[in-house]
Amino acid sequence: MPCNADLAGCRERLHGFASNGPAGIEKFWTIINGYFNELLSYICGTGMTSSA
After folding, report:
1. CA 23 to CA 39: how far, in whole Å?
2. Which of 10, 19, 25, 27 has the least C-beta neighbours within 10 A?
3. Which residues, in sequence order, are CB contacts of 5 under 8 Å at separation 6+?
4. Tell me, what DSSP letter sits at residue 4?
5. Which three-class secondary structure state does DSSP give residue 24?
């Protein structure tokens, strides 16, 4: 079963970062990757597994 995540306002935030050019987009993805890294670390730490 796939895992889906919905980040409220993601598109608007990306547009805001994109207005600063490639460096802004890179910063946006660094933040997003950090968020998902923390989320996955939490999930793995709980011992949760997929029952698919």
Report:
1. 25
2. 19
3. 36, 39
4. -
5. helix
Instruction: Round to whole Å and give the CA distance between 2 and 34.
Output: 20
Q: What is the pTM of this model?
A: 0.61
| 49: its two tokens | 């597994």
Sole residue written with tokens 């990757």: 33
Q: Which two tokens stand for residue 52?
A: 């698919």
Q: How far apart are CA 41 and CA 52, in angstroms?
A: 20
- In a 3-state reduction of DSSP, which class is residue 7? coil
Return the structure tokens found at 30.
């660094």
